[in-house]
Amino acid sequence: MNGAWGMEFVRLGVLALLGLVVGLLSGELGWSMAAAAAIALGFHLLQLYRLHHWIVNDEDRNNPPDAGGVWGELIDVLYRFGKRHRKRKERLARLLERFNEFTGAMPDANVVIGPQNDIRWMNEAAVSLLGLDQPADLGQRITNLIRYPEFVQFLRRGNYSEPLEFPAPRREDMRLSVRVVPFGNNERLIAARDVSHFYRIERMRRDFVANVSHELRTPLTVLAGYLETYADMAEEMPPVLRPSLEHMQGQTARMQQIVDDLLTLSRLDSENAVAGDQAEVAVPGIVSTLREDAEALSGGRHEIVAEVDPALRLRGEAKELHSAFSNLVSNAVRYTPDGGRIELRWVADPGGGARFEVSDSGIGIAPADIPRVTERFYRVDKDRSRATGGTGLGLAIVKHVLQRHGARLEVRSRLGEGSTFACVFPPGRALRKSTEARAV
Ligand code: ADP
After folding, report:
1. Whole-model pTM?
2. What spacing in Å lies between the alpha carbon of 260 and ligand 1's midpoint?
3. Position 1 pLDDT exceeds 80
4. 225 and 359, same structural domain?
């Protein structure tokens, strides 16, 4: 038993003894003991009253009542406990204040949403960048407030590996890049960044390339025209000049091809990120045209076969797809030595979509070069590419067209053995007509 309780019992004992003595002396033992009990009770009630008063009154917080014994100890413990609690609360409040200052100073918009896309928290930049209202929009669905269709689809799809870019809701001049990070209990953090600056630079770069290509087109056409006229008069020219005329014609044609490819790329860049998916493209017809083109290009130097599923169609842009497939076919012819074999395949993909494949038994590509062949102007062997009329832009165009169709390019190749370039289209793009597959 500790000192406080000892003192309490002594106090009670003395009071009882006093009641006993007074009772015995006065002959009113009952009353006297009752009075002693009432005094003890009154004392404890008074302490209880003072404790209660101290606890409920905020002003007295640092001024605990004086009390001895168990009451004193109890008050002391409560006082210390309260003080510790207050300190912790102050520390947390300071931390929260710092957090608010920090999130308020952040230039990026941050919004936390729940499983139903309901807004749970946002910082100040979310108001200016995303046009949200604080606190009125808390609890509202973000998809009701930011109605940009691609953003709504992006949230619904649940694949957040790539950021999404779209115009800021209330500021047409601003472009945002949005990332979504799932965390905690089914919550997601939406982080939006102002990327207008990069967007403008990127647009300037695109416009520059498009303008330069446009500007070069006319002089090149004039040049090619004159060279053709001179070529018609080659008989009258001194023989020493003829090879240079041929060379000039070859180089002009190459420049025209580069300009055309650059213009195709800028057109693909400037159009919507997703190619129209309403039109039905009869790929079997395209493949048979490509096969004829390949035979013409090969001039009988290669064996060219095609396997086509005639029932398989695609939703997309026919012209773009034709240009992409044609690049793959002409590469196969250009990078396969005489006597080689080239196979075109338009078949269902095991993943549920469709695939267009071009395989050749050509020179192949080393593993280190495979990831780079779709870069603009990347050629494994520059001389060979030039000698066969390459621009180094063909596979960049293929990659771009496929991206716009939600498809991917798969490249399998072995140096000296051949390559397979496959365009794999997702199930949503493939269509099926009720006819049987056949080899063409
Ligand atoms: P290019 O006009 O030079 O052919 P592409 O963008 O079409 O440009 O291809 C880039 C490079 O990839 C080519 O220069 C070549 O080195 C390589 N390549 C493309 N297709 C094939 C193929 N079927 N076989 C071997 N190498 C290829």
Report:
1. 0.70
2. 17
3. no
4. no
